[in-house]
Specification:
Blueprint lengths: L1 E6 L2 E6 L11 H5 L1 H9 L8 H20 L4 H17 L6 E8 L3 E2 L2 E2 L7 E5 L1 H13 L4 H10 L8 E7 L7 E6 L10 E8 L3 H5 L5 E6 L11 E5 L5 E5 L8 E5 L2 H4 L6 H18 L3 E7 L6 E8 L10 E6 L5 E8 L3 E8 L14 E4 L7 H6 L4 E4 L7 H9 L3 E3 L4 H4 L5 E5 L5 E6 L4 E6 L10 E6 L2 H6 L8 E5 H9 L3 H5 L7 H10 L6 H18 L6 E4 L5 H5 L4 H4 L12 H6 L4 H16 L6 E5 L5 H13 L11 E4 L3 H5 L1 H5 L4 E5 L25 H16 L3 E5 L7 H10 L3 E4 L4 H13 L2
Parallel strand pairs: 18-19, 19-20, 20-21, 25-26, 25-32, 26-27, 27-28, 28-29, 29-30, 30-31, 31-32
Antiparallel strand pairs: 1-2, 3-6, 3-7, 4-5, 8-9, 8-14, 9-10, 10-11, 12-13, 14-15, 16-24, 17-21, 17-23, 18-22, 22-23
């Protein structure tokens, strides 16, 4: 029998011949060991009914008391005291504050891990308190949660070994701490590192009692000093921080309110984020598997330390089926928070405001609480809780761990769920809309299907993906394709940036003080609003591009109606008259206008930052509504001025063919762009005015000669210039006849919604076989 055991230098394999060979606890604790084993074997620890559930709770409480009331033998007491003294001398202290951390073989197996299952103690000072903390670590082997976990995993309660690590405390109470994952844990994408951070000791981040900062780093450019591949930075609320107890000989910690300036400040600088990310890569390479790490920053020295590493488990991989959930109806949005899990759940609210109130948990309810406690897991499982909503917590807090362990959707960090929702209220949790999860009023109906990633047939025609958001790109990373042919910046504007670009370039012009304060709150952590806009947009685009690197990812610059721009914060002031032609311009016409040119320049700065600073040089640009060659020359001149020149560092610039004039000017335009892209369902609109033929190209594959003529003209013109023609759309998955027509016409690429890729690849391969 083999068990992984963590030691001071890392992980090592410890081998036992049989459960009976496991050593019993030393000294006086050992006296109770046979009694403990008999006690366990004589009780049925099944949790199938409340009566038995109460029975095994009594068992656990009794065993814990045996440990806590026992004493270590004199020899072991002396060895612990001597080691503590030597550690104090090494640190030049008479008495040293230490962390007493437990790790058990059944907790930290590479194939099974439930972080934080056993207890650890911080700011322990003095020999007496050290010994007491060690006894409490041993006792935590038999908490209700630990017993339930071993029952679920099929581990014998006596087939377990526990080690206790004693470490000098890092004075993170005077700086910050958090957790780090060497991959994206939610999606399993292997090239993205996720870091969470809060002020003070790291316990608040792990337990989910605060909303931490979140950082994501793209691995590939990390080793180059030329890049800063931090693709996401978001400031968490960090409402309170855990610090040392004052004037307490026993040590201990407490929570205090975080000062306002710290709440609005990033815990880590970019250079510190990159240092941690490089360590994550090194630890992962050493262990040969994805890793879950804890880090802490020392206040006096400003040094950062890795204080724990464990295998990361229960992570999706490239073979994990992808669920597609689509709501049939939608209710009113009540709350928004961090989305955990993939799914929808509906039920009645059960409000649990403190640890002891969990006994009143209702059957098949949605648990709503300020934060989640891992001690609730067994009760939640027994009551078949459908979902979890909290005021506080992040994507990798204990609340998130609980949601994933129980397989229920969770929406964390809503800030005011316990105030907004009422006991018994019917609600629906939706965790299918990206990083943000939403709570809707009432019960929503939905459909659910499943796709299994698999190798696609080889085709001449490139099959690319449409990606509306970072969350969608991460969700579908395992689906093979030739890159992304259409990424809409509009969606990033609406859901991630949220601010009108002119509102950040001219904040002094904002007359509504409430709107100005909202924008300042969104942009907290940055020196100014413009820096926020550029960095956030660059990060969102980079995160999408990272999922397909080095394959091309074509980003369409913003192209909304004036009314849609007006809905962004501050937009109402900069889009005052939606019926005025000066504000109703679309695409290139808007970018060239005096009204929006400064906003477009911010978009260009973000693309350049993503390519040159973050290292995502696979990003290309798409422009829409470019009426004629003169407009093309003018917009390309602006791109040049912003450092986005065609061909420089491999940059490609593509034209979306949206106007009849594009067809007539195709030859001239083909020399100014690197390719044409068009939407299939709008192809008939490109037929020049005056034509007697209406023309259709629909989902049934019915094609009039005029439509085929336009398609062939664009394709031939692009090919003559050495460029490509891509046809994009959302509805390709409905008609094999349409796919057959486009394939046999000889276009270069299709860009489609991700769930349709496997089916369309099959149709394309069949069509090419008969071409």
């Amino acid at each position: 029998m083999r068990r992984w055991v963590r030691c001071s230098t890392g992980w090592r394999m410890r081998v036992f011949k049989s459960p009976g060979d496991l050593p019993s606890p030393p000294g006086h604790i050992g006296r109770y060991w046979n009694s403990i084993i008999w006690f366990l074997k004589s009780r049925d620890l099944s949790v199938s009914c409340p009566r038995v559930n109460h029975h095994w709770k009594h068992v656990g409480m009794t065993i814990r008391k045996l440990f806590l009331n026992a004493q270590f033998p004199d020899r072991l007491n002396e060895e612990i005291a001597s080691a503590y003294t030597r550690l104090c001398e090494m640190c030049g202290r008479n008495t040293l504050e230490v962390a007493v951390r437990s790790s058990a073989t059944a907790e930290d197996l590479p194939e099974a891990s439930f972080a934080g299952m056993l207890e650890s103690f911080l700011n322990v000072s003095g020999e007496e308190h050290l010994l007491a903390a060690c006894r409490r670590c041993y006792a935590s082997l038999f908490t209700d949660r630990a017993i339930r976990y071993r029952e679920k995993m099929g581990f014998s309660h006596t087939d377990v070994a526990l080690s206790i690590g004693v470490q000098q405390m890092v004075r993170a109470d005077q700086a910050g701490a958090g957790v780090m994952f060497s991959i994206d844990k939610t999606s399993g994408f292997p090239n993205l590192i996720h870091i969470s951070a809060a002020w003070g000791l790291g316990e608040n981040v792990v337990q989910g009692t605060v909303i931490p900062d979140e950082y994501k780093v793209f691995k590939t450019p990390l080793q180059s000093s030329h890049y800063t591949p931090v693709v996401e930075k978001s400031v968490g609320a960090k409402e309170h921080k855990r610090v040392y107890m004052e004037n307490e000989t026993a040590g201990g910690t407490r929570n205090v309110e975080t000062p306002e300036h710290e709440r609005n400040t990033f815990v880590l600088s970019d250079s510190e984020i990159l240092d941690l990310a490089r360590w994550a890569v090194a630890v992962e390479a050493h262990a040969g598997m994805p890793m879950d790490m804890e880090w802490a920053k020392d206040g006096p020295t400003q040094d950062i330390f890795l204080v724990q590493a464990r295998p990361l488990t229960a992570v999706p991989d490239a073979d994990t089926p992808i669920k597609i959930i689509r709501p049939k109806t939608k209710g009113n949005v009540l709350l928004k928070g961090v989305s955990v899990g993939e799914g929808i759940a509906a039920g009645r609210v059960c409000l649990v405001e403190d640890y002891d109130a969990i006994d009143h948990l209702e059957e098949a309810s949605v648990l709503v609480s300020p934060w989640a406690n891992t001690g609730w897991v067994s009760r939640m499982q027994q009551k078949r809780v459908r979902g979890l909503i909290t005021d506080f917590g992040g994507a990798y807090s204990h609340g998130a761990i609980i949601s994933r362990e129980l397989g229920i959707p969770g929406i964390l960090g809503t800030l005011n769920a316990t105030e907004t929702l009422s006991p018994g209220q019917e609600i629906t949790l939706s965790c299918i809309e990206g990083d943000n999860g939403f709570v809707y009023s009432g019960v929503m109906e939905y459909t659910e299907t499943e796709i299994r990633p698999a190798p696609l047939p080889e085709t001449r025609l490139n099959i690319m993906m449409n990606a509306p958001s970072e969350a969608a790109a991460l969700k579908w990373w395992a689906i093979p394709c030739a890159g992304m042919g259409y990424v809409r910046m509009d969606v990033i504007f609406k859901h991630m940036i949220q601010v009108h670009p002119l509102a950040v370039t001219h904040p002094e012009a904002l007359t509504d003080s409430r709107v100005r304060e909202e924008i300042q709150q969104i942009a907290r952590g940055y020196e100014n609003m413009t820096e926020y806009f550029v960095d956030r947009l660059a990060g969102c685009v980079s995160e999408i591009a990272a999922t397909r690197y080095p394959d091309p990812v074509i980003v369409c610059m913003s192209d909304m109606t004036s009314g849609e721009y007006a809905l962004l914060k501050g937009g109402g002031q900069f889009e005052p008259d939606r019926d005025n032609p000066a504000y109703a311009l679309r695409g290139v016409a808007r970018y060239l206008s005096a009204h929006y040119r400064e906003g477009f320049e911010l978009e260009c700065r973000a693309i350049r930052k993503a390519r040159e600073e973050k290292g995502l040089d696979n990003i290309g640009v798409m422009l829409r509504y470019c009426e004629n060659p003169l407009a093309a020359e003018n917009i390309l001149a602006i791109l040049d001025a912003q450092g986005l020149s065609r061909g420089q560092n491999g940059l490609t610039i593509h034209l979306s063919v949206d106007m009849p004039g594009n067809v007539g000017n195709a030859e001239a335009l083909s020399t100014k762009f690197d390719g044409f892209s068009l939407t299939a369902r709008k192809l008939r609109r490109l037929i020049p005015s005056g034509s007697n033929e209406q023309g259709t190209l629909n989902n049934h594959g019915d094609v009039e000669p005029s439509v085929a003529g336009v398609l062939n003209h664009l394709m031939d013109t692009a090919h003559a210039a050495g460029h490509s023609l891509t046809v994009r759309g959302r509805t390709f998955g409905r008609s094999q006849k349409l796919i057959q027509f486009l394939t046999q016409a000889g276009i270069d690429a299709l860009s489609v919604n991700p769930e349709a890729i496997p089916r369309i690849a099959k149709w394309v391969a069949e069509a090419e076989a008969f071409r």
